[in-house]
Design goal:
single chain; mainly alpha; globular; 135 residues; 0% strand
Amino acid sequence: MVQIMKTDFFVGIYEVNHSDCYQFLQTLIDRHLPRISEHFKSEGIVPEMFSKSWLLTAFSTVLPLRLVLRIWDIMMANSWTILMQVTLALLDAHTDALLEQSQDEILSHLGLRHVPENSYNDEAIILKAHSFDVP
C-alpha cells in the first residue's frame, strides 16, 4: 500500500491546489444539481464546508467500507474524478432532505459521522456517480 501511495497518481492528488478543487466542485454542483446549488448559496454553504474530509480521505471516514473499496478500485483503475462524481451522487441522494434544511442542519446532515452499513445501495451510488459527466 505504501508503494501505491507513492505513485504519481496519489502524490498528485495531494499536490492539487485545494481551493481550485473546491471551485471545480462548486462548478459541478452548479451544472448537475442546480436546486442544491441555489439552496446551498442561499444558506451560505460552500463545498469546503462539507466535502473536505470526504475528498481528503476518499470517503473512508464516512461511507461503509464495502462502498469505499469500490470507489477506491474505480479511482485506481480510472481517475480521481470518481471522488467528484460520488460527491455529486451523495448530494443527489439526499436532495429532498437537504432542500428542507438550514445551514446548520445541512452541515450536520453531511457531517463527519460514519454512516451505518445499510444506509446506501452501493450499486445505485456507483451508477449515479457514473451518470455525472466530470471533465
